[in-house]
Design a protein that fits this description.
4 iron, 4 sulfur cluster binding, alpha/beta, 2 iron, 2 sulfur cluster binding, globular, about 15% helix, ATAP, seven-stranded mixed β-sheet, ATAP_core_dom, 10 strands, iron ion binding, three-stranded mixed β-sheet
Length: about 120
């Protein structure tokens, strides 16, 4: 398991987490009764969507051995090696507004997105 320092290791974090995203995710983790010192948010890429790939998120009680672990603003984010190839350098944000509310991934590796923004191609 490789770990990124919260201040950014030399290679930089696998995923940057905004304070709003961290606050919301930690609140949800606490609500599930998970220990935020060990548990975290898993961010991954899966086949699907009209553009070919889509993002997935879930809570995990602990990272897998080969995960890249980023800890920022009190939130641990787990990314598996194959997903890291697609989402490395991305920013995880949380948006709350009239149009939509939820987590959003800003991915610099995306070449095209579907119209709804739920799937992408690199």
């Amino acid at each position: 398991m490789s770990t990124d320092a919260s201040d950014g290791a030399e290679a930089g974090p696998a995923v940057t987490v905004t304070p709003d995203a961290a606050e919301e995710a930690v609140s949800l983790l606490d609500g599930e009764g998970l220990d935020t010192d060990v548990a975290g948010l898993r961010l991954f890429v899966q086949q699907g969507g009209c553009a070919g790939l889509s993002y997935g998120m879930r809570f995990d009680t602990e990272p897998e051995e080969d995960d890249r672990v980023t800890e920022q603003h009190g939130l641990r984010v787990f990314v598996d090696p194959s997903s890291l190839n697609y989402i490395g350098g991305s920013t995880l944000d949380y948006e709350s507004g009239l149009q939509a509310e939820g987590f959003h991934v800003e991915n610099p590796n995306v070449e095209a997105e579907c119209g709804c923004g739920e799937s992408f191609r690199t």
